[in-house]
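Protein modeling request. Please complete all fields; requests missing the sequence field cannot be processed.
Requester role: graduate student
Desired output: 3D structure, token encoding
Chains: 1
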Amino acid sequence: MSQPVVHRKLPVPPGKSGCPINMTVELLGDRWSLIVLRDMMFGGHTHFRELLAASLEGIASNILANRLAKLVDAGLLTRHDDPSHRQKVEYHLTEASIQLVPVLAQLGAWGAAWLQTAPELTVRAELLAAGGPPLWERFMAELRATHLEGVPARTDGVLAELTAAYLAAVAES
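Delivered output (173 residues):
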């Protein structure tokens, strides 16, 4: 029998209860945290201005700044000075946030099945659902390479495939 993987716990304050679902909802259940993580994962955005400009939902700059700080403090993002510009910073996913890929894939699949969604925004959820855990693992490996190891995003990887499907759907609409 394999042993469970033990992770270092995130530096978050105790919740209203010790229930893992409650603790997760307290950390990620606000309106914007998962959207910021989504935009970093699926949009490849790592700078404040990119995240602000690319926000389909129209996040306000003060809310984005708050969520980025909250996610950094919680250990879901890291913040680094951008070597290309001394007044810019880059945000990167941590292993803990990369491990949310299956959760986001399931949320997207549920939303695509049960809610009226835009076809161009649904195509990635459908591809992730169809690819299942093997595709999620490949995507997480790409995110690790990009966010944890600093390797440029692949032009032939899962993110490129998801982006191409999205752009094709946009062209059709």
